[in-house]
Design a protein that fits this description.
Length: 167
């Protein structure tokens, strides 16, 4: 850019203002693209939490992972566990913290609360996509992995329950 604008020391002001203009345009574009995510984030609060329960895992004094869940009735006796949110602090990911949280919440829902199964909440704001599909591949792969893990943990809990009943 400088090679086109620089004609001497007096053109430095033009180069500076043009550079800052380009940077501002990029920042405004990022803010515009992130706007829908900010709107989704504003929906999450105490009112959204409602009667849900929250399970956390801590390291020292800090919370490093959390899962939000509730029990929904289907008819008179049938219950299912509904996972509303699940997250682990970025620097703790890949260390088994999320898996441990899911294992515990599946155990709590099925063994302690008597749920017949566990599902992800439909219409969950965490699952909304506001960017074009080309940018969502990573999110979708992680969701598929989480769904497989949930199914695996649910089967393991069911088999543990059957073993206990037969003994």
């Amino acid at each position: 850019m400088g090679q086109y604008f620089y004609t001497g020391p007096s053109s430095l002001a033009l180069i500076g203002t043009t550079s800052f203009g380009i940077i501002m345009t990029l920042l405004i574009s990022v803010r515009w693209l992130a706007g829908p995510y900010l709107e989704l984030a504003e929906k999450i609060g105490w009112k959204w939490l409602g009667e849900s329960e929250v399970l956390v895992t801590k390291f020292g004094e800090g919370i490093i992972g959390t899962v939000v869940f509730e029990v929904k009735r289907e008819g008179r006796k049938r219950k299912k566990g509904v996972l509303r949110a699940w997250t682990v602090r970025m620097r703790e990911r890949g260390r088994g913290v999320g898996r441990g949280l899911l294992e515990e919440v599946v155990r709590v829902l099925m063994a302690e609360k008597g749920c017949e199964g566990v599902v992800w909440e439909e219409g969950n704001p965490y699952l909304d996509r506001v960017l074009p599909a080309i940018f969502n591949g990573g999110f979708e792969r992680k969701e598929e992995k989480a769904q497989r893990l949930l199914e695996e943990l649910e089967e393991a809990q069911l088999s543990r329950g059957k073993k206990r009943r037969s003994s």
